[in-house]
Specification:
The complex is a heterodimer of chains A (404) and B (182). Chain A has 404 residues and is mostly helical. Chain A is 65% helix and 1% strand. Chain A has a domain of 265 residues: Up-down Bundle (Cytochrome Bc1 Complex, Chain C), CATH 1.20.810.10. A two-stranded antiparallel ribbon of chain A has the order 1-2. Chain B has 182 residues and is α+β, with helices and mostly antiparallel strands. Chain B is built from 3 helices and 9 strands. The longest helix of chain B has 26 residues. Classes of the chains: A mainly alpha (404), B alpha+beta (182).
């Protein structure tokens, strides 16, 4: 791990520490001298952006907990109290609420980068799987966080999503009752979601450490997909990529703060400003935008269990993607046919996102089925096309591709 | 490690197995309280029955009451609604059931069904004009239509709205006592 470090402790304290806990030389090797491909483009900055979003969410979240009350009779008002009474409460809450959406934007860009440039391929399978795991934990965290303000969408979103588990035969109903701690989404549910919403971000942080560890074993991929061959192909991480990442983070945070300051309710649903009422379902339940593609897949299947399996399958397929794509070429830049289908897949994801917010009837359902077929078809296609596609010629090295 | 060909189990083998077995059983017993604490507790189980005064309900009206934290519909059906439900006993139903089996004998007027959609648990709408294609209930979440007997007719829901266990304690009072699968 510390193999790249040229660090030599200079003063007596650093020398003393080095013999007991060589943490400075490890950090130097991993975050300063770490050899990074010289040709990374801005799509490679979303990992750092996501990291900054995670830290923002944890910091603002800890502050919110100091003012929030996890009880069905007090939760809604305690959020209003944060918005109106707590000093800068509106800012902290808006940062947290909008931060969730911006975190997902960053992570979706990060995932698409991985899909386009083949970041999941040998030898980075474990790195990829850890990433999918982070994505799953994020979805669980975001879902439970959305329940805490105890508005109508919080309550009914929680009801619909927990009810998904009732689709499974035999164990379904006992599992749902177990998740709720009662006969409906109620105070026990709110309490446990609060506890888990506080826990999961730290689990995400733990998996992020493993994710970065795996990254630093295989090294970064790069836009050509050709592995690093000599020192000439690389630059030290600091200052080249610390600056590039921080610049991108700054631009992204300006984008983030535009929402926080000028349209803080942009991602919110108006119905969530009505306190939860177990006897009245809002006319049109929509999950948060980042769940919409999966929600569209759920509703596209006419069978309850089938819909649930298709939805979970849409995420599960990501775990086995490294073995579904049979092509050895990492970057889509050199895969003329696969590239077209990649963009078709992106269109399908966006279209499913739109359809997930539309009513589940008529043509909307028909189109949901078509785009769901494209979504899953992409993975089948990757398996087949890898066997027959003739790739464009690859550059001999990163340096050659940069200088030519 | 050197291999031993001795067929006789040693005291060390015994200690290994005994320790592992104790650990496994102990872990199992220790896990259960942590799992079971999430199941409905005594206070949730205690809120098990609901009494409804039906004297003020007009024909054609649907009243929503709360039973175990969720909606329960009490509907006083008109003659036309009962006839429509009876006529459809022979229609192609996703979850076949006779209307007469879903009400108490001699109380055809009173339909009491759970207000929890069997798809994903929303509360179907029963306000006039929004009762769906079969004049029963319409679930806005994913478009399930129920008829005047609370039977599923169209949409993703797999089952009819369940009929709870209840009794008429007098002509004007209904006591709802239990609901399977809810």
């Amino acid at each position: 791990m510390a193999g790249h470090s040229t660090y030599q402790p200079q003063n007596a304290i650093a020398k003393w520490l080095e013999r007991r806990l060589p943490i400075i030389s490890m950090m130097h090797g991993q975050a300063v001298a770490f050899p990074t491909p010289r040709n990374l483009n801005y799509f490679w900055t979303f990992g750092a952006i996501a990291m900054f979003m995670l830290i923002t969410m944890i910091l603002t979240g800890i502050v919110l907990v100091m003012h929030y009350t996890p009880h069905t009779s007090l939760a809604f008002n305690s959020v209003e109290h944060i918005m109106r009474d707590v000093n800068y409460g509106w800012l902290i809450r808006n940062l947290h609420q909008n931060g969730a959406s911006l975190f997902f934007i960053a992570v979706y860009m990060h995932i698409l980068r991985g899909l386009y440039f083949g970041s999941y391929k040998e030898p980075r399978e474990v790195l990829w799987i850890l990433g999918v795991l982070i994505f799953l934990l994020m979805m669980a965290t975001a879902f439970m966080g959305y329940v805490l303000p105890w508005g109508q969408m919080s309550f009914w979103g929680a009801t619909v999503i927990t009810n998904l588990f009732s689709a499974f035969p035999i164990v379904g109903d006992p599992v749902v009752s177990w998740l709720w701690g009662g006969f409906s989404v109620d105070n026990p549910t709110l309490n446990r979601f609060f506890a888990l919403h506080y826990l999961l971000p730290f689990m995400i942080l733990g998996v992020v450490v493993l994710h970065i560890w795996a990254l630093h074993v295989s090294g970064n991929g790069n836009p050509t997909g050709v592995e690093v061959k000599s020192e000439q192909d690389t630059l030290p991480f600091h200052p080249y990529y610390t600056i590039k990442d921080l610049f991108a983070v700054a631009v992204f945070f300006i984008f983030f703060l535009i929402f926080v300051f000028y349209m803080p309710m942009f991602f919110n649903h108006p119905d969530n400003n009505i306190e939860a009422n177990p006897l009245v379902t809002p006319a049109h339940i929509v999950p948060e935008w980042y769940f919409l593609p999966f929600y569209a897949i759920l509703r596209a299947v006419p069978d309850k269990l089938g819909g649930v399996l298709a939805m979970f399958g849409a995420i599960a397929v990501m775990f086995i993607l490294p073995w579904l794509d049979t092509s050895k070429i990492r970057s889509m830049t050199y895969r003329p046919i696969a590239k077209v289908f990649f963009w078709l897949f992106v269109v399908a994801c966006v279209a499913l996102g739109y359809l997930g917010a539309a009513p589940a009837e008529g043509l909307y359902v028909v189109f949901s089925r078509i785009f769901m077929a494209i979504y899953f078809g992409y993975f089948v296609f990757l398996f087949v096309i890898g066997l027959v596609e003739k790739p464009k010629p690859l550059p001999n090295s990163i340096t050659e591709s940069v200088l030519s | 490690m050197a291999t031993t060909n001795s067929a006789e189990p040693t005291r060390r083998d015994f200690l290994y197995i005994a320790t592992a077995a104790t650990g496994a059983v102990g872990a199992g017993f220790a896990a259960w309280p942590f799992i079971h604490q999430m199941n409905p507790d005594a206070s949730a189980l205690a809120l098990s029955t609901t009494e409804v005064d039906i004297s003020a309900i007009q024909p054609g009206q649907i009243v929503t009451v709360k039973f175990r934290g969720k909606a329960m519909f009490v509907r006083r059906r008109t003659k036309g609604e009962i006839d429509a439900a009876r006529k459809d006993d022979t229609a192609a139903l996703p979850d076949p059931a006779k209307d007469a089996d879903r009400v108490k004998p001699g109380k055809d007027e009173w339909l009491i069904v759970s207000g929890v959609c069997t798809h994903l648990g929303c509360t179907p709408v029963g306000t006039a004009g929004g009762r769906g294609d079969f004049d029963g209930w319409f679930c806005p979440c994913h478009g399930s239509h129920y008829d005047t007997s609370g039977r599923i007719r169209k949409g993703p829901a797999p089952l009819n709205l369940p009929v709870p266990e209840y009794q008429f304690t007098s002509d004007t009072v209904v006591l709802i006592t239990d609901l399977k699968n809810a």
